Amino acid sequence: MGVFLDTGFYLGLCHPKDKFAAQSEKLLVELAKGNYGILYTSYFIINEASTLAAVRSKNDLTVFDHLGKLLWGSEKIANIIPFNLNLELETWELFKKVNGIDLKDKKTMSFTDITSVILCKHHQIEYIVSFDSHFDKFLQRLYQI
Q1: Domain boundaries in the chain?
Q2: What is the pTM of this model?
Q3: What's the chain's average pLDDT?
Q4: Are 3 and 118 in contact (CB under 8 A)?
Q5: What 3-state class would DSSP assign to 125?
Q6: Which of 62, 82, 92, 125 has the most Cβ atoms closer than 10 angstroms to its Cβ?
Q7: Cross-strand pairs, 3
Q8: pLDDT of residue 105
């Protein structure tokens, strides 16, 4: 058992003005108890969280410092799953299916989000901490505890 941490969760933890800041803090307290297993994330999430933290905080160095501590530093909370290049085609095919067939005229599911689904599938991770409901089709989403 394990939990994959999505971008919005990290943003809520590092940026106090984020709309999910309080919810992210509550989730972190619960996850720290270990009842859901080991915490994971990916370099795709780090990329996305870093970029959005810069944009939403207007390049606030205190936000960057806090995010850095959560990702690599003294407050590191998750293991980083490397993306195996053998998963590229599987990710691409699911991306096309979800966006070209399943969600044809609805909100697009990002390539990063599809990558998270594939990584969870290959690492037998059942849960995701995310505020995005499009994950509900693939994983058990933790967004309130």
Answers
A1: 2-84+126-142
A2: 0.94
A3: 95
A4: no
A5: coil
A6: 125
A7: 39, 127
A8: 64
